Fold this sequence. Notes:
Blueprint: H1 3-7, E1 17-18, H2 29-45, H3 47-50, H4 53-68, E2 75-78, H5 81-90, E3 97-101, H6 106-113, E4 118-122, H7 128-139, E5 143-147, H8 159-168, E6 173-177, E7 196-200, E8 212-216, H9 256-272, H10 274-294, H11 300-303, E9 311-314, H12 318-326, E10 329-330, E11 332-334, E12 337-341, H13 348-358
Parallel strand pairs: 1-10, 3-4, 3-5, 5-6, 6-7
Antiparallel strand pairs: 2-8, 7-8, 9-12, 11-12
Helix pairs in contact: 2-9, 4-9, 5-6
Amino acid sequence: MNMKIFKKQFPLLEQYTYLDTAASGLLSDDVLEFRQDHDLDFLVGGSLFREKRDKLFLKTREAVGALFGCAAKRVALTPNFSYGFNLLMEGMEVSKKVLLLRNDYPSVNWAAESRGFKTCYAEIDENLEENIAEIVAAEKPDIFAFSLIQYVNGIKIDPDFLLKLKRENPNLLLFADGTQYCGTEKFDFEASALDVLGASAYKWLNAGYGNAFFLFKEHMQEQIVPGDLQLKELQGKNKPHQGSFIGKFEPGHLDTLNFGSLKTAIDLINKIGMEEIESRIKDLAAMAKKELTELNLLEPAVVNRNLHSSIFNIKGDEKLFQKLRSNKILCSQRGEGIRVSFNYFNSEADLDNLKKQLQ
């Protein structure tokens, strides 16, 4: 698809230089159209509309599974990452030791810390992988829970390192938050080192709020026993029944508007092609890293790593943040600086515009 035509899916791009996907993705015309049709169908259909919902959820599970390399029957739909991850940790024996990354996303760390798990920590810096390997060797944790991409500065963990870590520690369970990752490049969950991957879809998938998913390896069924959840039985070929494994993560009714939005957002990604999306994001990320490094705006931990995402935290205070805002560049204040993030709908012109305001 011609990218200029595609950019028209996101009307906000006509008004702003949007460097804030790490905070929130955009609403596309396709998703808006689905949402309008959905509510109209509900308006005129009532309980007749309700009868179609299981088919919609099945299609959503299949779309998520196809995009990320996981069988649809092992895809759970949850309202957000935090909900699903807290449920996951609730189902783990509290006697287990959990390795966390210091200053990782709060929803990841709090879920372990607040439940009284024994915890140990690895530092997030240029030697991230070596730090993790050292702590695993010394502390022998049962679970490693972490974000694939760090939300403050965009540091990205090496997937080859995770495979090596899993080979050397086959009993170590890897639970990953992919909220800042899913939708940025091709990913095959089944071939990955991960045991569980969860992600909210309102960022890089541009699916709106209120939808997330969790992917599970087959063997996790024996590992997780969420407590006394009262689950509603929902029918459907790939919909788990009451008391089943995935059903434990989907109590009660699911939201047809939000999970239909997720399906529509994935359809749009498939129209463009994940290879094209990955290529554009990686090209922009490489250019941005080079330019921002030359301007001496990045921390050494980012500059000195070969692998990085398209999220950057640049040196800057409130005054610079307001200057960018007043020049219609949308970004976020995170940590001690200003976070900018580049999605596939961004362009070199957006990077040039940012540079112009930074010089």
